[in-house]
Amino acid sequence: MLPAQAGQVSNDQFLANQTWERCLTIIKGQISSLSYKTWFQPIVPIRLNENDLTVQVPSQFFYDWLEEHYNTLIRNTIISVIGESGKLYYFVASEEPAISQPAQPENETVSPTIDSARTPFAPHVLFRTENLQSIRNNLNPRYLFNNFIKGDCNQLARAAAMAVANNPGGTSFNPLVFYGGTGLGKTHLMHALGNHAAVNGKAKRIAYISSEKFTVDFIESVQVDKVTEFSSFYRSMDLLIVDDIQFFAGKEKTQDNFFHTFNTLYQLGKQIVLSSDVPPKELHGLDERLISRFQCGLTADVQPPDLETRIAILQKKSEENSLELPPNVIDFIAVNVTKNIRELEGCLISLLARASLENREIGIDLAKDVLRVVVNDIRTPLSIEQIQKVVCEYFDIPVDLLRAKTRKQEIVVARQIAMYIAKDMTNASLKTIGIHFGGRDHSTVIHACQAVEEFLKTDNKYKHHIDQIRRTIELNK
Ligand code: ADP
Ligand code: MG
Questions:
Q1: Separation of 186 CA from ligand 1 center, angstroms?
Q2: Which CATH architecture has domain 6-115?
Q3: Over 70: is that where the pLDDT of 90 sits?
Q4: Sign of CA dihedral 27, 32, 33, 37
Q5: What pLDDT is recorded for position 104?
Q6: Which of 13, 81, 187, 268 is the most buried (most CB within 10 A)?
């Protein structure tokens, strides 16, 4: 199938919103509020076409869950809102492209209200509606800059994405290429860029496509003798976003077509945005001339997030689900899931799912049960008590003196060092640290940290103490 014209947004979406709202009202009355928030609030209605309602779900996992647990509820709701002939189609927003065999979409039977039938032809479309590309240029409305957490790990990529979104084709970042491991935010960033450019009107014609889908569509266009239409569609874009270009490897004809598309757009001053799992120069199975084209703009990496960023992401995601996770649970997940943001989200979803299904409170115990499945060696976040213990053992003083009023010089030094390390090595606020040291004020903690920093500049002995204490803490973790 060839893509439809970009930019068509009909009032199907408006009708979809209205219909879905009515469904939600029914559903809300039948399940717990936690289940509702977890499983139904994140669903985005996309379009209503006669009796066919299309909704978007955030992930395959999410879809599977709905199907397994809420099938009957959803089916009955759809029937009571739309009628017996009502059908629900799902569209999975953020799936990794899977290597798949082409299917025959023409022969596909229309699924019953809810069905697990799925077409491997377009991996992220579970129920193939007749043309999902006409839906907002294939951009996922959930991926925005304002829900993309900034961190050292993605600073350049994010800044470049924003610059390009504000002036597509008008910066020297053309093409803009993101690279980095899986689940680190490349796809999110590309959609955010596209959505931003669509909203500010700086690019009228925008297409987002994965290289895999591009390849499949290209092959199809060859088979039905429509290569010219295929090519001119993509060559008419103001902003072309192609995700996961590593899948172009070994597909020579597609690469050749893409090469010409690239050149046409580039010469016209149109913006190209690409992503890959490795830096362009390490892409194997890609034509040298393509690789050299990819390198003429800006290449920006995304790295695994540091602890602070992981915490911020978890906070944001729980906020998006209108959930307040206890800070110790957030810390616990963030300490243990370190490499992949998708996994971080997965843990959050599992946590909510289990809390809701097993009727358990969201706390460390439940979090441990959830993480046991994904993490081999579960770590508990460093506590202020552990720090106090190590510091006191090091200076050979009783722990309760850290909390006492005493102003004896050696106790003051130990207390200041413990506060300084607590600030540095945990996520605790100044206020919390103060409370752990005999209910001291946060300004006392600031003063302690500043004092230690000053000593560190002038006194080698301090550096030695702190290095030793840190090492012991790390070993005991
Ligand atoms: P990639 O394309 O690099 O494999 P994705 O963009 O699909 O990764 O990100 C995986 C998941 O993690 C998505 O749901 C995305 O929203 C989330 N995510 C990644 N980076 C961030 C971030 N910096 N802030 C918020 N969410 C993020
Ligand atoms: Mg991706």
A1: 7
A2: 2-Layer Sandwich (3.30)
A3: yes
A4: negative
A5: 32
A6: 187
Q: Whose CA is nearest to atom 19 of ligand 1?
A: 185
| Average pLDDT of span 374-387 | 81
Q: Does the N-terminal peptide bond of residue 175 adopt cis geometry, omega within 30 degrees of 0?
A: yes
* Most trustworthy range by pLDDT among 38-52, 219-233, 375-389: 219-233
Residues in the chain, how many? Answer: 477
Cis preceding linkage at 279, omega within 30 = no
By most ligand atoms within 8 Å of CB, the mutation choice from 184, 186, 343 for ligand 1 is 184
Q: How many CA atoms lie within 13 A of 288 on its CB side?
A: 0
Q: Which fold has domain 307-371?
A: Helicase, Ruva Protein; domain 3 (1.10.8)
Place of tokens 């209205």: 18
> Which of 56, 146, 342 should be mutated for ligand 1, with most atoms under 8 A from CB?
342
What are the residue boundaries of the structural domains of the chain, listed by start?
A: 6-115, 135-301, 307-371, 384-476
Domain 384-476 matching CATH 1.10.1750.10: the answer reads: yes
CB 214 within 8 A of CB 14: no
Residue nearest to ligand 1 atom 26, measured at CA: 148
Q: 341 CB under 6 A from ligand 1?
A: yes
Structure confidence at residue 355 as a pLDDT band (50, 70, 90): confident
Other C-beta atoms closer than 10 Å to the C-beta of 29 total 8
Q: What's the rounded Cα separation, in Å, for the pair 57 and 183?
A: 17
The CATH number that domain 135-301 falls under is 3.40.50.300
Q: What is the pTM of this model?
A: 0.66
- CB 112, CB 88: distance < 8 Å: no
- Residue position matching structure tokens 């491991």: 181
